[in-house]
Design a protein that fits this description.
Elements lengths: L1 H13 L1 H6 L7 E7 L6 E8 L4 E3 L7 E5 L2 E5 L14 E5 L5 E8 L4 E4 L3 E5 L10 E8 L3 H23 L1
Antiparallel strand pairs: 1-2, 1-6, 3-4, 4-5, 5-10, 6-9, 7-10, 8-9
């Protein structure tokens, strides 16, 4: 029985990083900024809370931005779009409650993109994406220390109770 408890405890501790990083965007509030024609000039801003919100910008091109889990997924409608050349002409997803540590980018057309601790952005500068083009970002974050301590304390508490029961 003790061997089983030890194996369960090791499995629980090893799975902590996976549990803590699941769905990092879920429940996060943020703002989606569309900048045009320069990075310092906001054309529109939409507040959102992931994952239930689909943010649809109200300017010319109908871009749908689906935000949830670890993903930001942007799709273009069924008509062609063209974006004017400018120093920055695109979207900035701002998550003030996150500490973003990695972003993986996928798309079926080329654009400039980047990220920092609270932002992920994509630049459509001078591009003409075809119908049904998409851009996808997979986001990784560092778990909050408080969450990790709380989860670890719970696992240690359960292990202590099991150990006490086995010794009685």
């Amino acid at each position: 029985m003790r061997k089983l408890v030890k194996v369960l405890l090791v499995l629980a501790v090893c799975s902590l990083p996976m549990i803590a990083s699941a769905g990092v965007l879920d429940g996060q509030s943020g703002t989606l900024y569309y900048y045009y024609p320069s990075f310092g000039s906001v054309y529109t801003a939409d507040a959102f809370t992931a994952p239930t919100t689909v943010v649809t910008l109200t300017y010319g091109p109908d871009l749908q931005n689906v935000i949830g889990g670890n993903t930001i997924f942007i799709t273009f409608g069924n008509i062609g779009y063209s974006f004017t050349p400018a120093s920055f002409n695109g979207e900035d997803f701002n998550f003030p409650g996150l500490n973003i540590t990695s972003v993986v980018y996928m798309s079926n057309f080329t654009s400039t993109w980047g990220w920092d601790a609270q932002d992920v952005w994509v630049n459509w500068q001078g591009l003409t994406p075809g119908a049904n083009s998409f851009v996808s970002f997979q986001i990784g974050t560092t778990p909050e220390p408080g969450s990790m301590i709380l989860l670890g304390s719970g696992v240690l508490g359960i292990a202590g109770l099991l150990r006490r029961k086995l010794n009685i």
